């Protein structure tokens, strides 16, 4: 699993800043460690020194460019004057030959990063540029690393997306969300959100007022590091992504007692808790602050979601941000373990930098859960035998019991084979929250079975000295056991640690023991691929090699009989993306040094032809085909930065169907001579979304009505008798499925938005008579909370589950009749699977 993750073009840019006590302070350790490394191009990244041992962490580069996630760790033993090499942890990439001179300009890469966003999200996005990085796997991929910050408007969440754009083709090679959601010195006090009074370290200004500025910690005399807590004044979380707005002020009071807004918004809680977390790390683990250098810890409390409560918290790479809450819910800063969790994300980012994706992301969450909760039970004096000791967020409710209120439970007993929620990368970054308590539970069991302080040291040492960015669960187990050996735990204690991992199923090969109720068409899909496509008993899908090391290639196969998939795209190393088929022809988007194109080929062979060529100034994506008609999205880098729908019929000229300024088009769908898409309009009064049907023979355009106000419309698809689309009134995720005749008559709700079967955050596809949609019907963190497929007749009825597979079913395509194919994450990876019809038994 680990090598597949690397090969799929994973993950994050290596930190370039040396940590305290870095290589310059340990020249002897560095010399010894460098001699123990292999031939890779390595740069010292950090050195940890624990007196009788030291770990030197190297970052790999290729021809001077950092290699994403690739590190080598050298572990040294003995007093400083007599170190010896005890072991190495090698996570470097071999065989890199990629040219490190970019042929795609960084400005074009920025356009590519924005092209995949919906128009409203794109309009508010900000892009940070981090330069070049080499993604490992095979010969490597040279990529521009960009961070897109802003607001994910359809989901109503903050956005911090890491995007890696191929610097030779302009294609997005990797993207993932990197927002870690939950989720003069004076003595003062403050009222916490729950009404209790807490002591605070505050600061008295020259004007006699007090503010939430803590200079009492050991870091301040040495480095000037402070604990700072800012008042968001109930402004939108969007305003606080990245740099603090210049007008943001610390919470302030006329006296050393803080209440009012500081109490209501959780500012008092955030400030008090940050001090507790600092002391835990400094006194127990010898770490001075989040960055380890004694740098300041910054919190912002009281952000909202468009003026409404924001029941979340996150570490955004520079600071903690906590939402305002009302009613039963307290702000997330009101529980010490949540604050400890978010601050530990910061520590992880400065040490192992565990990539926030898949199993490495779940370990990232697990370590934050473990150490955050360790802070909480230590400060509160809660014994490990307390049945509620493993709860996180248990103090965030005003009246509910701890177990009712908790976000997660480290004593939930989850194991890999029994409980692993197999999600593809389209959900929860591959399960970073959904699967975290499997690993975190093993860590907590260790804390229950050996001395807690020793367990904390083992976990912290594993994080800072043994884990690397791309670790899997089994790698994480190896890291913890390596740390235990380095700390000279007894053989019995090390066996206890190993048994905890055994009991949670974290053993080599666990992924092979999971099962499904579907027919597998292609196993082990390793490419970071969007939706497959299907029609007429054939499918097309993007595939890489078994390690995910080569550029994805377009393949086709038959759904009704098991035959190996056949490659359609050229084996030329160019980047292929979204695919579509009408059962006879496949189309796909292709990016190379020459620019962006839409290519086509018949499923049974024949020449590859170019349908459209956008050159280097446009991104052509989401192509669809029906007979001799091909349509696609066009995002113009050099123009208005809008997404338009274009179509070409036969050898005729390509036509822009949404040329008007302020009018955009998304996700075209073709059936015969009809084309549907979502029209997006913006004027001075707001954003407007409508489903549209174009008759390519007559030029007739039908704009389907949608309610006024805040409405989001997407996925306009065609059936034999009409058009269907998803409609979300209020943009809260709960949606209805609407339908109408091809010419706009008989508008109706096939699945009512206010009904019991209303899907959450759905996607939609159609055959002649059936609509297939994804939905989330259960609570987050449960099997039912993952995207599942349901099917309903176009005339309406009760939706039925397509499959009882417990994993992610978000990326799917409807074939003929009731048959569906999809990318399924149940079996510990991603497989292309199918069912002929919905399951007849309950799930």
Description:
It contains 16 helices and 50 strands. The chain has 843 residues and is α+β, with helices and mostly antiparallel strands. Strands 9, 13, 14, 15, 18, 19 and 20 form a seven-stranded mixed β-sheet that branches. A five-stranded mixed β-sheet has the order 16-12-11-10-17. Residues 1-27 have low confidence and may be disordered.
Annotation keywords:
843 residues; alpha+beta; five-stranded mixed beta sheet; 50 strands; globular
Mean pLDDT: 89
* Biggest beta sheet summary: 7 strands, mixed
Q: Please compute the radius of gyration using only Cα atoms.
A: 27 Å
User: What gross morphology would you assign?
Assistant: globular
SSE layout and pairing:
Layout: H1 2-7, H2 27-36, E1 41-49, E2 53-62, E3 65-77, E4 84-91, H3 106-115, H4 119-124, E5 126-135, E6 141-152, E7 157-166, E8 172-177, E9 180-181, E10 185-191, E11 197-204, E12 210-211, E13 213-214, H5 219-223, E14 227-231, E15 249-250, E16 252-253, E17 257-258, H6 261-264, H7 267-285, E18 297-303, E19 313-315, E20 320-323, H8 336-350, H9 358-380, E21 391-392, H10 402-405, E22 408-409, H11 416-419, H12 428-431, H13 436-449, H14 452-466, H15 473-486, H16 491-503, E23 519-522, E24 533-535, E25 538-543, E26 553-558, E27 566-567, E28 575-581, E29 585-592, E30 595-602, E31 605-615, E32 618-626, E33 629-636, E34 643-649, E35 655-656, E36 663-671, E37 674-683, E38 686-695, E39 701-703, E40 711-718, E41 722-729, E42 736-741, E43 748-751, E44 764-766, E45 770-775, E46 788-793, E47 800-801, E48 811-814, E49 820-824, E50 831-835
Parallel strand pairs: 10-17, 14-18, 18-20
Antiparallel strand pairs: 1-2, 2-3, 3-4, 5-6, 6-7, 7-8, 9-19, 10-11, 11-12, 12-16, 13-14, 14-15, 19-20, 21-22, 23-50, 24-25, 25-26, 26-27, 28-29, 29-30, 30-31, 32-33, 33-34, 34-35, 36-37, 37-38, 38-39, 40-41, 41-42, 42-43, 44-45, 45-46, 46-47, 48-49, 49-50
Helix pairs in contact: 7-8, 8-9, 9-13, 13-14, 13-16, 14-15, 15-16
């Amino acid at each position: 699993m680990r090598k597949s993750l690397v090969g799929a073009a994973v993950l994050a840019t290596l930190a370039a800043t040396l940590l305290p006590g870095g290589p310059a302070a340990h020249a002897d350790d560095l010399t010894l460690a460098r001699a123990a490394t292999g031939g890779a191009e390595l740069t010292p990244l950090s050195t940890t020194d624990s007196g009788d041992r030291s770990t030197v962490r190297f970052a790999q580069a290729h021809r001077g460019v950092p290699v994403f996630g690739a590190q080598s760790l050298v572990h040294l033993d003995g007093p400083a004057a007599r170190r010896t090499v005890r072991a190495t942890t090698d996570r470097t990439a071999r065989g890199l030959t990629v040219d490190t001179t970019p042929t795609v300009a960084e400005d074009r890469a920025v356009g590519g990063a924005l092209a995949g966003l919906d128009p409203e999200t794109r309009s508010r996005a900000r892009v940070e540029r981090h330069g070049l990085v080499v993604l490992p796997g095979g010969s490597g991929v040279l990529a521009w690393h960009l961070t897109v910050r802003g607001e994910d408007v359809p989901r109503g969440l903050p956005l911090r997306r890491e995007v890696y754009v191929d610097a030779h083709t302009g294609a997005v090679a990797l993207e993932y969300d990197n927002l870690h959601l939950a989720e003069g010195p004076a003595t003062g006090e403050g009222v916490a959100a729950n009404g209790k009074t807490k002591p605070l370290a505050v600061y008295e200004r020259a004007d006699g007022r007090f503010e939430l500025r803590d200079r009492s910690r050991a870091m301040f005399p040495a480095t000037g590091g402070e604990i700072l807590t800012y008042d968001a004044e109930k402004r939108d979380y969007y305003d606080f992504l990245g740099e603090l707005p210049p007008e943001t002020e610390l919470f302030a009071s006329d006296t050393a007692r803080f209440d009012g807004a500081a109490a209501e918004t959780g500012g008092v809680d955030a400030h008090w808790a940050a001090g507790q977390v600092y002391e835990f790390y400094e006194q127990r683990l010898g770490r001075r602050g989040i960055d380890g250098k004694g740098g300041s810890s910054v919190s912002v409390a009281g952000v909202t979601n468009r003026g409404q409560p924001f029941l979340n918290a996150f570490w955004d790479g520079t600071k903690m941000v906590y939402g305002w809450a009302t009613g039963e819910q307290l702000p997330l800063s009101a529980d010490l373990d949540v604050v400890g969790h978010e601050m530990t994300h910061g520590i992880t980012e400065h040490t192992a930098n565990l990539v926030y994706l898949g199993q490495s992301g779940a370990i990232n969450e697990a370590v934050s859960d473990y150490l955050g909760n360790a802070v909480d039970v230590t400060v509160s004096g809660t014994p490990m035998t307390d049945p509620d000791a493993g709860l996180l967020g248990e103090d965030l409710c005003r009246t509910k019991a701890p177990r009712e209120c908790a976000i997660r439970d480290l004593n939930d007993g989850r194991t890999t084979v029994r409980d692993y929620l197999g999600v593809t990368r389209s959900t929860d970054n591959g399960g970073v929250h959904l699967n975290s308590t499997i690993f975190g539970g093993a860590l907590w069991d260790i804390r229950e079975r050996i001395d807690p302080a020793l367990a904390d040291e083992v976990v912290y040492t594993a994080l800072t000295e043994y884990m690397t960015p791309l670790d899997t669960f089994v790698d994480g187990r190896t890291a913890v056991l390596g740390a235990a050996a380095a700390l000279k735990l007894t053989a019995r204690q090390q066996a206890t640690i190993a048994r905890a991992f055994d009991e949670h199923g974290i053993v080599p090969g666990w992924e092979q023991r999971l099962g499904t109720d579907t027919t597998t068409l292609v196993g082990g899909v390793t490419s970071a691929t969007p939706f497959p496509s299907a029609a007429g008993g054939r499918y097309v899908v993007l595939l890489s090699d078994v390690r995910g090391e080569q550029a994805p290639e377009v393949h086709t196969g038959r759904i009704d009989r098991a035959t190996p998939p056949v490659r359609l795209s050229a084996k030329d190393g160019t980047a292929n993306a979204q695919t579509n088929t009408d059962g006879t022809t496949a189309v796909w988007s292709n990016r190379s040094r020459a620019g962006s194109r839409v290519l086509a080929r018949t499923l049974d062979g024949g020449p590859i032809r170019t349908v459209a060529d956008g050159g280097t100034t446009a991104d052509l994506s989401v192509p669809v085909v029906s007979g001799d008609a091909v349509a696609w999205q066009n995002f113009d880098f050099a123009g208005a930065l809008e997404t338009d729908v274009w179509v070409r019929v036969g050898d005729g000229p390509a036509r822009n169907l949404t040329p008007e300024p302020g009018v955009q088009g998304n996700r075209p769908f073709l059936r015969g001579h009809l084309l549907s898409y979502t029209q997006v309009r913006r004027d001075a009064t707001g954003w407007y979304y409508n489903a549209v049907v174009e008759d390519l023979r007559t030029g007739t355009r039908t704009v389907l009505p949608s309610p006024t106000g805040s409405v989001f419309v997407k996925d306009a698809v065609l059936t034999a008798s009409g058009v269907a689309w998803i409609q979300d009134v209020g943009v809260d995720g709960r949606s209805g499925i609407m339908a109408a005749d091809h010419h706009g008559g008989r508008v109706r709700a096939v699945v009512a938005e206010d009904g019991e079967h209303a899907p959450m955050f759905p996607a939609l596809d159609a055959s002649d008579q059936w609509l297939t949609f994804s939905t989330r019907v259960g609570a987050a963190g449960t099997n039912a909370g993952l995207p599942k497929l349901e099917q309903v007749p176009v005339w309406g009825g009760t939706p039925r589950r397509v499959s009882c597979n417990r994993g992610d079913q978000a990326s799917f395509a409807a074939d003929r009749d009731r048959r569906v194919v999809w990318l399924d994450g149940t079996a510990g990876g991603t497989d292309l699977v199918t069912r002929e019809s919905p399951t007849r038994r309950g799930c």
